[in-house]
C-alpha cells in the first residue's frame, strides 16, 4: 500500500518520491526517487544538499512507518557521506531505524543507483515528535 502522505507532499513531488515497500521486522523503508535534470550541477551530478534531501526523506519515513504513522522525527543532526556521484534519473533510497528511545532516535539512510551501487549514506540523530496531521 502506498503512503498518500508521501506522494501528496509538495516536497515529495520535487524529489520525485514513490513509495516502494516497508519491512516492519527490520524497520526499513524503500523509496524510489527521480533526480531531475534541474538538480544537476555543472560537474554533472546532483547537488549535495539535494542528495541530503533524499536521505533525510528516507530516514524520516522509516521512523514514521515504524511508529505506525504516529510519530515523525525532528532532526538534531544529519551526517552524510557522498561515495559516488548521484546522477540524474532513478535513485533508490533505503532508510532504517537503528535505535529508538523515548527521547532520542537514531536513523540511517542509503542511496543506490539502479544497479545497486551505493552512492551516499547518512545517519541522523532526532527527537521523536507527534506526526503533524495525525495518523494516515
From TrEMBL:
Coiled coil: none annotated. It comes from the Bacteria. Keywords: Hydrolase. One of its GO terms (molecular function) is acyl-CoA hydrolase activity. Residues 44-119 form the Thioesterase domain. It holds the Pfam family 4HBT. SUPFAM superfamilies: Thioesterase/thiol ester dehydrase-isomerase (SSF54637). The keyword Hydrolase applies. Transmembrane segments: none annotated. This is Hotdog fold thioesterase.
Amino acid at each position: 500500500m502506498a503512503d498518500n502522505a508521501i506522494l501528496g507532499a509538495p516536497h515529495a513531488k520535487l524529489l520525485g518520491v514513490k513509495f516502494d515497500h516497508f519491512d516492519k521486522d527490520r524497520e526499513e523503508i524503500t523509496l524510489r526517487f527521480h533526480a531531475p535534470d534541474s538538480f544537476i550541477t555543472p560537474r554533472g551530478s546532483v547537488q549535495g544538499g539535494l542528495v541530503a534531501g533524499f536521505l533525510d526523506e528516507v530516514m524520516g519515513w522509516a521512523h514514521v512507518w515504524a511508529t505506525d504513522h504516529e510519530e515523525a522525527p525532528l532532526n538534531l543532526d544529519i551526517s552524510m557521506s557522498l561515495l559516488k556521484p548521484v546522477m540524474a534519473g532513478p535513485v533508490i533510497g533505503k532508510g532504517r531505524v537503528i535505535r529508538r528511545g523515548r527521547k532520542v532516535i537514531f536513523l540511517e539512510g542509503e542511496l543506490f543507483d539502479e544497479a545497486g551501487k551505493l552512492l551516499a549514506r547518512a545517519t541522523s540523530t532526532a527527537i521523536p515528535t507527534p506526526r503533524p496531521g495525525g495518523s494516515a
